[in-house]
Amino acid sequence: MSWIRRVLVLFTLLGFVGVGRSALATDPLSLSLRYRTQTDQDSGLFHTLHRDAAWNPKETAIILCDMWDVHSSQNAVRREKQIAPRLQQVVEKLRSEGVTVIHSPSGCMDFYADHEARKRAIDAPKASNLPKEINAWCYKIPEEEAGVYPIDQSDGGRDDDPVEYEAWVKELTAKGLKPLSPWSRQIDVLKIDEGRDIISDSGTEIWNVMEAAGIKNVILAGVHTNMCVLGRPFGLRQMVRNGKNAVLIRDLTDTMYNPASEPKVSHFTGTDLIVEHIEKFVCPTITSDQIIGGSEFRYAEDDRLHVVMLVAEREYATDKSLLAYSVKPLGKSYRVSFVYADAEDKNDLRGSEVIESADLLFVSVRRRTLKTEQLERVRAHIAAGKPVVGIRTASHAFHVRNVDPAEGYAEWTTFDPDVFGGNYTGHHGNKLLPQVTFAAITHPILEDVDRMPYVSGGSLYKVSPLASGTTVLMTGKYEGLPAEPLAWTFTRADGGRSFYTSLGHSSDFEQPGFRVMLENAIGWALDRPAAPKATAKP
């Protein structure tokens, strides 16, 4: 390479050649980075939080991972075609701001051998700090040792219908393509700027480019999150372990996950589980609307509604019970988020902003006076007529007896009658365990429920009489005491649907009938048809 070309390559990487006026501006990229941190040491529970970041565009690169022209999985191709136009908008915006755009369709470098963007990657000056294993796949970083990988991808993750897949293989073969690796180039929706962009699938080349350009921040988008986006030599793990500030655009990615594999949830829940894993142990994530405005991207087939679980009680360990329950069976039909209390301030539900996007609020809270703005989010959800499901201590969720809320905090003393039509006045002795009996009525919440009576491990709540507009689905009885309603529905004054049960002891979650009833209650409250039930233990 001549010294003239070497200088031109270096100047291009530094942003002095072929760059529009806007790229020289100093306005930072304003991003909201979502990450997860444990609620307390070794709790195994995580707050979902955000922090603001302001990145210098000239110190930032976006890497488009394996956005191939075709794939061995036809469903993967269909999903890629959905995100590609949105990703192109993101690329155009970032490029105009001065961000370095790196196209990385792995295994396709021969196609681009004569492309200036490819030559630019090859000709970049060798970095003096080249990481030792930057050209290798990275299958795990030390931080991930603290977690359990959330999905089984041992079958390769292809989720195609078998008949469709057989036809797809024949189609690829007829075109002279290898069915397992049919790609040859990047999808043509993503445009490559010959005067400015980079084309490479080499960890060494990409590192050289980034160091020459002074890149400190890396944005990853593309496919597939659980494989290439995480593990490639230019993937998230390598970027993080070698000191770059890395983020994933979580709404412009996809996984290779087959819902027939564990944990046997929706394909899109499988992607969410990988994103959660990344946010816990690898790096934060962002969404495309932070760059180009509008709303987050959502796949056309992703019809899951959003269930937000508020969990803040210490008596019944529902944080553990609900976490196990939320993956199976809720992960088949719903997107589930958790909000937990802060370890230092039990009245602070950290990350409660997610309530604003909830389709259904699931409450397992005991006697907390929330920060005023947090309780307002709960009130706004209910005032909008959205559904609520509550278990056990939800009847006295936001009412602390004989104590006024501290400044900046608020309570809702009538939450039980207002939201559940209930009348909680206390409970019988902890050793008086009730016999649980399901009502002999036809109701969607009791569909497919094993109605065998059982003894609950929790004391019997005093809740009679209930308000008008309630329908009792379950009762509890202890010898010598009057029977009490244990579960009921309620149509609120705002028109919204509520379901409440005073059950919720860990032993209740061992009962198939209780678990199916909860799943049905969520579906009923959301006015969704009942799905096939999974009654295995959580």
TrEMBL record:
Signal peptide (UniProt feature, chain positions): none
Membrane-spanning parts: none
Coiled-coil features, chain-numbered ranges: none
Positions of the ThuA-like domain: 325-525
Protein name: Trehalose utilization
Species in which this protein is naturally found: Rosistilla oblonga
